[in-house]
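Hey L., structure's done. Input below.
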Amino acid sequence: MTRSHSTLVLIGYGDIARRLAERLPDREIVAVARRRPAPPPGHQGKWHGHPIDLDDGTPIPEEAVPAGSIWIYLAPPPRHGTVDPRVSHWLEGAMHGPAAAIYIGTTGVYGDHQGGWVDETTPPTPQHDRGRRRLDAERQFTDWCGQRGIPLTCLRVTGIYACDRLPVERIRAGAPVPRGDQAPWSNRIHA
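Output:
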């Protein structure tokens, strides 16, 4: 099996993972979420949905981690603390290493640069626990994959938007919005 046809393992099957699965209708996919994930409409490839709660110590079944697969880790960290125990649980429970791994993180690891430009060479200096949790997750993946010689890509994604994800109702309800002079440069990515 060549890498381009490896099974995709989507850990954290939420909106973005679903959108990815929709764009890969013939691919074999393993999807992991708290509740058993269903394939998107029109998916023709093999589908394996696994209900795994990364918070409660649920063992990771061997069939959820096929050898030679490509992992895309999209599960968010918990809401509290400075470490990501969900990543720890996944990495400790994985029976087989992937051919490659992609960790979807956040630009929040860079911290507040007071309007200064930030790029991928900027050292991470998270100033909030959420960013610290994400940086911890990156480091766990970096160490784990590095020890095993597994290629890893950490994507630090910024604000995700889509037509169905805009705060239109909040704005209609009169929620405050920033004035133009209060809205610094930012980078958004479409879902």
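The longest strand covers residues 100-106. Helices lie at 15-22, 85-93, 129-148, 168-172.

-- N.
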